[in-house]
User: Fold this.
Amino acid sequence: MESGPAVFAGAVFVLFGAALLIWTAARARHGAPVALGVRPVPAITLATLSGVVFLVLGVWCFGRI
Assistant:
């Protein structure tokens, strides 16, 4: 009964983390700004770190099943 919310949360975290990493990589590869008004290196670093954290949270949620 409690595995349903864990599966949902894990799926959301993994999908968002993966999408954020793919989007960040695509923007950085094309030289487009990741965040408007922010220097590129801190924006790419923060977005990549956030994507990795969301992926880890998703894997952790799946591990709790």
Summary: Residues 3-30 form the longest helix (28 residues). Residues 5 and 49 are 25 Å apart (CA to CA). The mean pLDDT is 92. The radius of gyration is 14 Å.
